[in-house]
Amino acid sequence: MKAFVTGATGFIGANVVRALLERGLSVCALVRPASDRRNIVGLPIEVVEGDIRDLSSVKRGMEGCEVVFHVGALYSFWVRPQRLIYEVNVDGTRNVLRAALELGVEGVVYTSSVAALGLGSRERPATEETPVDPEHIVSDYKRSKFLAQRVALEFAHKKKLPVFIVNPSYPVGPYDVKPTPTGQLILDFLRRKVPAYMDTGMNVVAAEDVALGHLLVLEKGRPGEPYILGGENVSMKALLGILAEITGLPAPRLRIPYAVALPLAYLNAWFCKAFGGVPRMTPDTVRMARHYMFYDPRKAVEELGFPQTPAKEALRRAVEWFRGSGMVEREIDRRWRQT
């Protein structure tokens, strides 16, 4: 069986490609001409140059493939120009699904995000059924993923395309070359650039589990049904404590109140907008941090057999990969080795 994959050079996509190859599938990857291809160097896959914003290149690459894994997306909380995140995440998803429909593929796995779902709480983690208030979605990234999932649901229910939807939570692990916002926190910790933390929480899941979940949903899932690919719910304080235990580096003790963090985020965003660069935190990320982003992956566990790697093990793998990738400064890397 031949699989067409978008986003193969990215974090989750690189893990999905490896999971497909391990299962014996052949892979055709749609890759932008200017894309960083480190994640797929040496892999026995076919590469077709194109862009998910260009329907003709998507169809050209997809021809002859039985299944599609649409993993490609723009995962960032700081995108300029602003419209780009909607062109990639929403219009790009529509192009991939339209091409799949016209070519009559057997199934499409769409990589959504828990960002497209409603918010739960520390006491009651969100599920696939937690309602979303479209008027109060924080950040263009979350709004774009919410709109893109609506496109996927429309193709599944109205156009009868067999679309399987997965919603990864906070993935950590190998091949996060950019890095993504999730990996940036780990990398910043290793570089001693996390002086403080906010009172928030997230659901940590191993990237390798997320990749396997893409295959499991195609085998056992129900079309048009979202599945949270999540792991262990941990507070930010606990996550930093786990990283400290893994690395031997000290965890920050200072907790920043929301009332202090938000003005600092506005100042940081203004500076980067005026002088260039990417802010470490934005007003949107601070607003999101007011909520414990805890999720319940029970549906995927029970229906798909989705694995549950502990957060500590997932973070350990991520730390080892960042350390071995050369993305951590040499002196910090030496200190980690001595622990």
Question: What would you say this structure looks like, in words?
Answer:
It is a single chain. With 339 residues, the protein is α/β, with parallel strands linked by helices. The chain has a domain at 2-175 and 204-231: Rossmann fold (3-Layer(aba) Sandwich), CATH 3.40.50. Helix content is 44%, strand content 16%. The chain is built from 12 helices and 13 strands. The chain has a 7-stranded parallel beta sheet with strand order 3-2-1-4-5-6-10, sandwiched between helices. Strands 7, 9, 11 and 13 form a 4-stranded mixed beta sheet that branches. It has a two-stranded parallel sheet with strand order 8-12. Helix 1 packs across helix 6 (207-220). The chain is globular and about 55 Å long.
Structure in a nutshell:
With 339 residues, this protein is of the alpha/beta class. It is 44% helix and 16% strand.
**Major sheet:** 7 strands, parallel
Mean pLDDT across every amino acid position: 92
Measure the end-to-end span.
46 Å
CATH topology group of the domain at 2-175 and 204-231:
Rossmann fold
Indicate the percent of residues in helices. Answer: 40-55%
Secondary-structure-based class equals: alpha/beta
Uncertain runs are: 330-336
Percentage of β-strand residues: 15-25%
CATH superfamily of the domain at 2-175 and 204-231: NAD(P)-binding Rossmann-like Domain
What's the CATH architecture name of the domain at 2-175 and 204-231? 3-Layer(aba) Sandwich
